[in-house]
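Hi support team,

I've been running sequence recovery on a batch of backbones for a student project. Most finish fine, but this one hangs at about 90% for roughly twenty minutes before it completes. I'm not sure whether the input is malformed or the queue is just slow. I've pasted the structure tokens below so you can try to reproduce it. Let me know if you need the job ID as well.

Thanks,
M.K.
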């Protein structure tokens, strides 16, 4: 079955460009489009896409609130990729904190766009650019530090979290640690459970906000 995608952007040319790139792939199918975040929830319920490519800045309902609405009101919600023009956009970081699964620049090359959709569909987050990591560090707070302290991660889990924060996939982490991919998946699952994180993105945000890892 192909990975199904819903495109959400107020610029028709951006949607057309993304559709052309994604529909050219045999394992990806664009099943719908929306020009504003206000249309996302009903479309997600009707089309049941695997991934939503969501512009972060839209006139009626921005990508932050649209992300919150999808995660709050849709059972088994799709993965959400935030799409924006600027990598140091604070809106992007707020969308990631709201539950988006990854980040993509509109100027990304076609191969990067395709890779992003496939990666998020498989449940692995995208690498945060350095500017977004710096924003996460600036949002450092006691709550995130308390969450990490209560989690009492093992030494191996701490190592896996650091590699997750670098943007490595499970396969890359397994290669780095010289262990099996299933072992890494078990560690990731344990980390998410201990941190109370919905997904890898939320775990990595906690890692940065708590100061456990730095953006350097």
């Amino acid at each position: 079955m192909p990975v199904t995608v819903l495109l959400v952007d107020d610029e028709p040319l951006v949607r057309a460009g993304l559709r052309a790139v994604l529909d050219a792939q045999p394992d990806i199918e664009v099943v719908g489009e929306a020009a504003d975040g206000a249309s996302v929830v009903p479309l997600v319920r009707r089309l049941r896409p695997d991934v939503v490519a969501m512009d972060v800045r839209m006139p009626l309902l921005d990508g932050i609130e649209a992300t919150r609405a999808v995660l709050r009101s849709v059972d088994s919600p799709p993965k959400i990729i935030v799409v924006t023009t600027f990598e140091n956009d604070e809106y992007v970081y707020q969308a990631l904190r709201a539950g988006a699964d990854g980040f993509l620049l509109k100027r990304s090359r076609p191969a990067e766009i395709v890779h992003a959709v496939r990666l998020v569909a498989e449940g692995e987050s995208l690498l945060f650019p350095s500017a977004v990591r710096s924003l996460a560090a600036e949002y450092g707070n006691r709550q995130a530090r308390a969450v990490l302290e209560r989690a009492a991660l093992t030494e191996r889990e701490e190592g896996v979290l650091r590699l997750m924060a670098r943007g490595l996939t499970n396969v890359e982490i397994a290669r780095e640690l010289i262990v099996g991919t299933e072992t890494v998946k078990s560690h990731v699952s344990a980390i998410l459970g201990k941190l109370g994180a919905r997904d890898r993105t939320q775990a990595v945000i906690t890692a940065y906000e708590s100061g456990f890892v730095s953006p350097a």
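--
Follow-up from support: It reproduced on our side and the slowdown came from queue contention, not your input. The beta strands are 3-8, 28-34, 51-55, 79-84, 102-105. No action needed from you.
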